[in-house]
Amino acid sequence: MTFEIEVLWTDWLVWLLVVSAVGYGLFVRSRPHLRAPWTRVARSASGMAALTMLSVFVLIGLLDSIHYRPAISVKDGKTIYSVEVRSVLDRVAWSLRVRKEKTYSAPLATQLYSKETVVLPDGRETRVYPRLQFGGAHLADPDADWAGDVTKRVVQGVAAALVAWTLLAVLLCAWIARRRGVHVVAIWRAVWRGETAVPWRAVLITLAVMLAAGAPLLALAAKYHVFGTDKVGLDVFYQSLKSIRTGLVIGTLTTLVTLPFALIFGIMAGYFRAWVDDIIQYVYTTLSSIPGVLLIAAAVLTMQVFIENHPELFPTTDRRADARLLALCLILGITSWTGLCRLLRGEALKLREMEYIQAARAFAVSDWRIMVRHILPNVMHIVLIALVMDFSGLVLAEAVLSYVGVGVDPSTISFGTMINSARLEMAREPMVWWSLVAAFCFMLLMVLSANLFADAVRDAFDPRIRAARPFRLASQKA
Amino acid sequence: MTAYLLRRLIYSVFILAGVNFFTFALFFFLNSPDDIARAQLGAKRVTPEAVAKWKQERGYDGPLFYNEKASGAGRMTDTIFFEKSVKLFAFEFGRSDQGRNIGFDIGTRMWASLAIQLPVFLVGIAVFVTLALLMAFFRATYVDFWGVVLCVVMMSISGLFYIIGGQYLVGKLLNLVPISGYDDGLNAVKFLILPVVIGVVAGIGGNARWYRTIFIEEINKDYVRTARSKGLSEIRVLFRHVLQNAMIPILTGVVVVIPTLFLGALVTESFFGIPGLGSYTIDAIQSQDFAIVRAMVFLGSVLYIIGLILTDVSYTLVDPRVRFE
User: Is the N end or the C end of chain B the one with fewer CB atoms within 10 Å?
Assistant: First the structure.
């Protein structure tokens, strides 16, 4: 099958982030003074457990960030590509995506959630719960076979998880043993006694829990809708997987796109002081005095009108949804860069009085060079802490904003849109709860591991910076 | 002090002017009033007459900054900028795009918002400080450790789930209080209990942990060691010495919020059907009523700036060392 790679704007930025993260990693590796705080992060058990969890989310998010358009037909030697953009994740989870039911069905159900009128062979009409088209369709008699089949799949999943986990654990120990030149068994024992410098025990336990939960889920997902289906019959598990990318994009790109402003303005204000400082302070005081939600709402509304009036800029719905996602990141960034800018200004004010900068100035090093060579590297830890600390708040903010109606495009699958559409069914009797539960679990796992990792990073880089206040946006509206 | 406050007030006027100009630019530069009218009227093929009529009815038909046709002062005042933006300084909010009087709506709705937000604020601080002091008292024990773990888990849960879960548990399963609605006077209490409780619980995670760090930091200071070496009990040290001194960093975060309590809570109010300013704003956002959003942005900034000034004043009250020159 031929296809054409389609790089959306957020994809560009996501991969740029990945490349710079790898570059940063290589840069840090060869410099002991930069490596030291990361070594401290690696020593934190909760931090490493959270990192294990996060890397799974990141992996899913990255798979969802390679987009392509499949070919649909060949005409006069020219291939026509579909307008619909797909990601590698879609390809992997293709069966989840295409197995659409008619409407709601409960998790692991074999029947629809609502009764339908069916005409019996003898002409009479009756109201029954019809069988699902795909969920549990392989069962001949759902009432009798269902429990056995589900148990069988769970057991198979757990068994597969056990095998995979043992393999991973042995490989890990073999790798450490090889590096240290010690016998594998000795390492194995050290790991389980928690005697290794890096808390591999915590990592392995996290992996075990994740595999034990994930593998049965996948085994069941092959034939059932593990988390049920939503109003239009789309698999909720698939939606949860797709939401991960949206959450990651908002959590990381928001800080990233406004980082240049915060860096340039913050350092300039602190370094030059006088009128430059006055102007920059005025700008960020003005921006930060507008309540965050209202500023975001105002900006998103304006942007919606702009997109509506300029359809020619966005050829496909996917492009438009992507543009809206990026715009949301920018807008969220406008409200959050002021805090970082203020921190950087304070740090630059302090640094400019240090002896080494005085010395640089005495040697007639230009202002620009001093800022880039001497101040910038010494404030980078603040930037890094801000990047990881803001993440969880932003993921939570997305859900609230989508609820208010100023979040992502309604066609983008995100935790916010999932909650929002499930909310409308709250009053239904009996309640449709599975979308909410799925969104809750995935979001809690993602935000919790991000919070734990952020704490580990903060403690390692600067124990003096207190836990930042919870992102104001989220607390304000709760 | 007076001179300092006066300077702060003058600076605030400049900040507000900046806010005003920024929102004006946001609403009128990226999209012309014509674009807004077309988006409001919905259909793809809107007649120019309909657009002109919509603009004229709402006063969006003038020039943006400078009116060449008018004479004298009218050249400056007969413009969209003056009508829609400068007049906000006199708290003349004008009419919403649906034709309602915004000033009147705000005046009636803010009390419902305050009725939720004030109890959330007061009960919240009491609960957060108590829990944080407890954790600080049992610091470096399992109580503290699991307390912090619980806080981190609680702050990782979206506020939406607190509301949804609370409504489901208390309103639907236990049938203790009505799920949504509002009433005047004392009858409102039964509608307010649940949103207030949820508001406080949702804040515990982040705030209790934050206050705990402040207390722990304070506990490690020299004067606390002196107090202990005098033979004071740990309780007395915590309440007499640590609590009072920790008030200063706590005040920074707390006082600034007081004026903005009027603005209400967006999500809570719309979930519980409380006719406050939060649900007013949400309705405006969802019906794309730009006039109301503009008014709320201005009002929000004014209240926030008042909060900042109040914070400074409160410093001088709790910390005699602070002097403003």
Answer: C
Report pTM: 0.86
Verify whether the Cβ–Cβ distance B282 to A405 is below 8 Å: yes
ipTM of the complex: 0.83
Q: Which amino acid is at A300?
A: V
Question: Which chain A residues are within 8 Å of B156, Cβ to Cβ?
Answer: 392, 444, 447-448, 451
Bridge partner residues of A125 (DSSP): A119
> How far is Cα of residue A17 from the mean position of the Cα atoms in its chain?
13
Query: Considering CB atoms only, which of B19, B206, B288 is closest to A290?
Result: B19
Q: Do A469 and B253 touch (CB under 8 A)?
A: yes
How far is it, in rounded angstroms, from Cα A473 to Cα B158?
A: 12
Chain B: give the shortest CA distance to residue A216, in Å. Answer: 25
How far, CA to CA in Å, does B313 sit from each of A121, B205, B252, B307, B310? Answer: 83, 29, 11, 10, 5
Residue A475 pLDDT class (50, 70, 90 cuts): very low
B197 interface with A at CB cutoff 8 Å: no
pLDDT tens digits for range B86-139: 667 767 777 776 767 778 888 888 888 888 888 899 999 999 999 998 888 888
CB B273 within 8 A of CB B322: no
Q: Chain B residues with CB inside 8 Å of A392's CB?
A: 156
Strand partners for A74: A79
Tell me if chain B has a CB within 8 Å of the CB of A473: no
pLDDT-above-90 percentage for chain A: 8
- Report the alpha-carbon distance of residue B78 to residue B275 in Å, rounded: 35
Cβ distance of A470 and B206 shorter than 8 Å: yes
